[in-house]
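BACKBONE STRUCTURE TOKENS:
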Amino acid sequence: MKPRGAAYDWEFRWRFPILIASQPAFAWLVHTTSGSSHRWYAPEFSGRIAVPAVLVATLGILLRIQATTALRARVMASDDPDVSRFVTYGLYRALRNPLYVSSLLLFGGYSLFFGWEWALGYVAFHGWRYRRLVRVEESLLRNEWGADFDEYCQAVPRWWPKWPELRFEFGRWLSWHGVVANWVYVAIWCGIVVSAWQGDLAWIIPCEFAGGLLMAAYYARRWARRVPVPRPEPAPLASELTARRGSQSPLLDVVPVPHFETESIKRSGAAPVRDDARSA
């Protein structure tokens, strides 16, 4: 049963496309409502707006890179909530949802180019949407981890960090995994910086497009390198081995595979251990 106020399945599954699609929709809404004569995707802005926009977006992308360091790329791109791990270290010691907060900061920086009033509405919309997504995740985590998760929720805020616990591990700020798993977000930040420097928000379009291609290639490569789990072949009958090897006992060559082990492999999706396995 869906928790009250929680997102629907399609909302969670399409959370990233909705976030990206909100950019042109927001730009078009501002253009048609304000009656601006400039290009709808590249409004005119001043330096007083560009500076805080870059600062807010920079804080957002740094938070996202470090938060992603504590997670796997598979979790970042999953269609369904992954509750197999309960992360409480890194930024998660001070904030329960650093990825959502980082997205609000990054896209909030983008929306500042359209004006403070419009930016507040844009951030409020995504804040409402993220609140619905968080209710889904917290419900599943509570069912999986019980009292441990309740204790974590009491100690760590959902949206506003506990400043004494906010420890920035500078050695992980530029984690390569944290960057490549967020190519689109990094590209948006680059587009914001270049746009502020050039005075034209149109630069964000090619940057974001290039980031999307890199991110798609990254996850496609990860998917292609996944080793499929082979289905175990049934063990030959004792009579077959006896006929094949004469009087030799078949028990010397039969290595049974426990049923619970194969089921565990299929549920976890882990690849079987091989002697010639190489690190990815």
Remarks:
- DSSP finds twelve helices and no strands in the chain.
- Residues 116-145 form the longest helix (30 residues).
- Residues 238-268 form one domain.
